[in-house]
Specification:
The structure holds two protein chains of two kinds.
Chain A (H helix, E strand, L loop, with lengths): L6 E4 L3 H12 L4 E4 L3 H10 L15 E4 L2 H7 L2 E4 L3 H12 L7 E4 L12 H8 L5 E5 L4 H5 L4 E7 L2 H11 L4 E6 L2 H23 L4 H21 L10 H12 L4 H10 L4 H8 L4 H16 L4 H11 L4 H8 L9 H8 L7
Parallel strand pairs in A: 1-2, 1-4, 2-3, 4-5, 5-6, 7-8
Antiparallel strand pairs in A: 6-7
Helix pairs in contact in A: 4-5, 8-9, 8-10, 8-11, 8-13, 11-12, 13-14, 14-15
Chain B lengths: L29 H25 L5 H18 L4 H16 L5 H19 L5 H20 L3 H7 L6 H4 E4 L2 H10 L1 E6 L6 H11 L6 E5 L6 H9 L2 E4 L6 H16 L4 E2 L23 H11 L7 E10 L5 H12 L14 H13 L4 E5 L9 E2 L5 E2 L5 E2 L2 H4 E2 L2 E2 L3 H21 L2 E2 L1 H15 L6 H4 L11 H20 L4 E2 L1 H4 L3 H15 L6 E3 L2 E3 L3 H8 L8 H5 L8
Parallel strand pairs in B: 1-7, 2-5, 2-6, 3-4, 3-5, 13-14
Antiparallel strand pairs in B: 6-7, 8-9, 9-10, 11-12, 15-16
Helix pairs in contact in B: 1-4, 1-11, 2-3, 4-11, 5-6, 5-9, 5-10, 11-12, 13-22, 17-19, 17-21, 17-22, 19-21
The chains are: A alpha/beta, B alpha/beta.
């Protein structure tokens, strides 16, 4: 039997560990980078991520290490799964050791505040690697670790990246679809986090399923509008990385951002909610960053505006709701509407 | 079996393959030329056979049919020159034969088509003549560009144009010269005017950089004098009217072979002159993509100098001879404006003469600004030929193309690498764009005029010319002051280069210089001062010059929210 290649996973959070387990279960040796030597030793001793996936025994093919150079040396495919706020510094460390032959895949659904850069762009800037991709979709770490069937999207301009990721990740309970609209796929993963806060809030207030349905659909319209303006294909948002991820994140109590929204609905402050989650809820930052960008580009994003007012401007929920229900009523599916009339661009 | 079709065209008979020469300069021996010729034919035919093998919907008959159709359409639409008549006979012959023969016969027809193309494309470089041509060029430019006869040209020799003084060449020239000994260079300039290739040829000679072979438009060869200069400055012929796959493949293989032989190559990656006046924002990657193929082949053949490096070069000029016709074509292409056909400025000899005279009179400069050399993957390359990533860490280029430790071709991957390279070239173009007084004044004036009619879209605004839309001088100077401040900030960040006339001058000086330039060449149409204030008689021309500073984020300072520009 041919020995399978090493796969590197950079990041010891819940999603990194769930992926490591999935890949290890398929028989690949996995080198799992943790930020600290203690964390790596603890993992090697117990084969459990006690902080993020407590009680789940992970594959014996996983070896944890705190030496990122070792990961760069021994793996041809390296998956980077660290929170966006640490992403650049970790990518730079990785960049000291990769040589351009490796495939780098980001699973982080975040955005850099100052530069508005997405994570594959950070990987490109911080390393000499060019074969880069983004993995995104409705992928709640706990469900993946529990081996529940689900699917994801690997987005890359390089067919080699797509082939490799499909070969390593796809299996009896995980399907990997492809897309070459890297920016769109990443943006889908970023934007939905913000709207999950809104649906969590609405759900906690028991506003009803009609409200949730409308909110998710109009969120999708806002996301596509934004993506279109940023140069992505709005149709990407009809796929797993768009509507798939949005529906999951906006309806699942396993989603951190959704839980932040629920707590806000229960009367907690933003600080209390974030503290109680204990993990990074990317959506809170996303609201701020994307709202600023949308304002710069003149893109109308009413739900995002409402969220910003609620989270950062001290406006109460009834006032935000009133404002949202009074925005001008436009066409439902604006892309279809404009295509029909041959309009060259989507107005903002 | 039917007889193979070999139409009676010079050089159409297949040549015997010669031994493969390596590491030559631009001067090729007869044997080497024969080698290049036969290899272009062989590879072109092989590529098309492979295409037919891998595609269910293609065969040689369809491919030849397509070439015949496109060529006959081209010949029907174009002017009938001497060569066109011969080509019409050729294609008529092909059309009557290709469906009557079997696949072996079609292969021979394809061979003869490729042979005809390669004979047209191939240039002949003579180093002695190159030296002579480059020296004569400053005198001969006027004649060269105005399409005078050689006899008339001799009459102008005494009136030498001071081209050296008007051409400012900057950038890492020693660095480029050093790399030219270690690797094959691909020079990729921006394209502003029909004068560009001649100016670059001269600039390279002046800076003792090696000669580059380059593709020049076939139309430029129609004049025997021009043809003499171009052939001997290392040019080969490119006919942009030929759109069929066989021609494009032959052209690509010619460039590839030239690089394989170690000849330094030059091509305009924008494909054509910038119609809008903007610095290129999109590149045609076809020829550029040959570089990575050659690199991999060189590694596979273990050549001692397998590397190819790319040298971006931004050309900037305060005035552009063909500005009027270029912007008209741009607006026609964008499809939002009624097209008004006007004569090409380049076709008017007097205009060429006046342009050149004005340039000297105005003490104006054409800037040829080289960017840092790049490898084929978009990394910058240092003096020693080592690739460096964004943090200056060394990069082993071979790793990009290795599969299991061996260099391998992977067309899809390599195409993406070329896209990365394209991005790096575009970035270099922007950073090495030299902003001048005409650009800054046009930018500020255009913004001020648009502010007067915020309800107008761009195409309506382009029709607001005349003194009734004038901007008060004081208002324009305030805008120009703001713009200069932003430009200097951008320059400090390495985002643009400022010409000396913008570097330290105040808004009034910049405006005066711009008005002087515009008054001289465009008869004040672009920008003019009158009792009503500063106005334009041709908003499109003003738009053309302001576009040189578009997409730097400068719009915000003068126009409010971004995103209002046409695509």
């Amino acid at each position: 039997m041919i020995a399978l290649e090493n796969v590197g996973i950079v990041g010891g959070g819940s999603f990194g560990s769930a992926l490591a387990d999935m890949i290890g279960t398929k028989g690949h040796p996995v080198l799992h980078w943790h930020r600290t030597a203690e964390g790596a030793e603890r993992f090697n001793a117990t084969h459990e991520n006690s902080k993020y996936l407590p009680g789940m025994k992970l594959s014996g093919n996983i070896t944890a290490t705190a030496d990122i150079a070792e990961v760069a040396r021994s793996a041809r495919l390296i998956v980077v799964s660290v929170p966006s706020m640490h992403f650049r510094s970790v990518a730079r460390r990785l960049g000291d050791h990769v040589d351009g032959s490796q495939i780098l895949v980001s699973t982080t659904k975040g955005i850099e505040a100052d530069s508005f850069k997405l994570m594959t762009e950070v990987l490109r800037e911080e390393t000499c690697c060019l074969k880069i991709g983004a993995l995104s979709g409705p992928n709640l770490a706990k469900e993946i670790a529990a081996k529940m069937p689900s699917g994801t999207v690997i987005a890359s301009r390089y067919e080699e990246v797509v082939r490799k990721v499909q070969e390593v990740l796809s299996g009896p309970y995980f399907r990997v679809y492809s897309n070459n609209d890297v920016y769109g796929v990443e943006l889908g993963g970023v934007l939905k986090n913000a709207y999950a806060i809104a649906t969590g809030l609405v759900a906690s207030l028991k506003m009803g399923d009609n409200t949730i349905g409308m909110l998710i659909t109009r969120a999708l319209a806002e996301m596509s509008r934004f993506a279109d303006k940023m140069g992505s294909n709005p149709l990407t948002f009809l796929g797993l990385a768009g509507v798939g991820d949005l529906v999951t994140t906006c309806t699942s109590p396993l989603s951190r951002n959704y839980r932040v929204g629920m707590m806000l609905g229960q009367g907690k402050t933003l600080e209390e909610a974030v503290a109680e989650i204990g993990e990074v809820a990317e959506g809170v930052n996303t609201v701020r960053i994307v709202r600023e960008k949308a304002a710069q580009l003149g893109i109308r994003m009413h739900i995002l505006e409402g969220l910003h007012a609620l989270l950062f401007e001290g406006i109460d929920l009834p006032a935000v709701l009133k404002q949202l229900m009074n925005v001008p009523q436009m066409e439902d599916v604006e892309f279809a509407y404009r295509a029909e009339r041959g309009a060259p661009t989507i107005p903002t | 079996m039917s007889e193979p079709l070999v139409p009676n065209l010079p050089g159409a008979s297949p040549a015997p393959a010669a031994g493969k020469p390596t590491n030559v300069g631009l001067r090729l021996t007869r044997e080497q030329l024969e080698y290049v010729r036969s290899e272009v034919i062989r590879r072109t035919v092989e590529d098309h056979k492979e295409l037919c093998r891998t595609s269910k919907d293609l065969n040689l008959e369809i491919l030849i049919n397509d070439a015949v159709y496109q060529e006959q359409e081209r010949l029907r639409a174009g002017k009938w020159g001497k060569d066109d008549k011969r080509q019409a006979r050729f294609w008529g012959h092909v059309a009557s034969q290709f469906h009557r023969v079997d696949d072996a016969g079609r292969e021979r027809i394809l061979e003869s088509i490729a042979a005809m193309y390669v004979d047209e494309i191939m240039g002949y470089f003579n180093p002695v003549l190159h030296k002579v041509a480059a020296k004569v060029l400053p005198w001969g430019l006027k004649a060269l560009l105005s399409r005078f006869s050689p006899a008339s040209f001799l009459g102008y020799v005494g009136k030498r144009l001071s081209l050296e003084e008007n051409l400012v060449i900057s950038g890492p020239i020693d660095h480029i010269r050093a790399l030219s000994d270690k690797a094959t260079l691909i020079m990729t300039p921006t394209h502003v005017s029909n004068l560009d290739s001649v100016l670059i040829g001269l600039g390279l000679y002046q800076k003792r950089l090696p000669p580059f072979t380059y593709g020049a438009g076939l139309n430029l060869f129609s004049n025997p004098l021009v043809s003499f200069f171009l052939n001997n400055l290392g040019a080969y012929k490119v006919d942009r009217r030929k759109k069929n796959g066989v021609y494009k493949t032959a052209l690509k293989h010619y460039a590839t072979l030239s690089m394989e032989l170690g000849q330094h190559n030059l091509f305009f990656p924008g494909g054509t002159r910038s119609r809008s006046g903007e610095v290129e924002r999109k590149l045609k990657l076809g020829l550029l993509g040959c570089g990575v193929n050659v690199f991999i082949s060189n590694l596979q053949e273990q050549k001692p100098n397998p590397d190819l490096f790319v040298v971006p070069c931004t050309l900037s000029s305060a005035l552009v001879m063909e500005a009027r016709s270029l912007i008209e074509e741009h607006l026609q292409e964008t499809g939002k404006s009624r097209y008004i056909r006007i004569r090409s400025d380049y076709s008017r000899p007097m205009r060429v003469l006046r342009f050149w005279r004005d340039l000297q009179h105005l003490d104006s400069r054409i800037h040829m600004q080289f960017g840092e050399p790049l490898d084929l993957f978009g990394n910058r390359v240092d003096l020693e030929g080592v690739s460096r990533d964004a943090h200056g860490r060394p990069v082993d280029r071979r790793k990009y193309v290795e599969v299991d430790g061996k260099p391998e071709h992977d067309p899809q991957r390599d195409q993406e690498y070329t896209r990365e390279l394209g991005r790096a070239i575009l970035d270099s173009f922007r950073r090495n764009n030299v902003a001048m007084s005409t650009h800054a004044a046009a930018f500020a004036a255009f913004a001020a005029m648009r502010r007067r009619h915020p309800q107008y879209d761009l195409y309506r605004a382009l029709r607001t010319s005349g003194p009734e839309h004038a901007v008060p001088r004081s208002e324009l100077l305030v805008d120009l002051g703001v713009l200069l401040e932003r430009l200097r900030l951008l320059r400090d960040q390495g985002g643009i280069v400022l010409a000396p006339d913008l570097d330290r001058a105040g808004p009034a000086e910049v405006l005066a210089k711009a008005l002087e330039h515009f008054a001289s060449f465009h008869e004040g149409d672009a920008l003019k001062e009158g009792p009503e204030g500063i106005h334009t008689r041709n908003m499109k021309l003003l738009y053309y010059y302001r576009n040189r500073l578009a997409h730097y984020g400068l719009e915000e300072a003068l126009e409010g929210p971004r995103g209002k520009e046409p695509a």
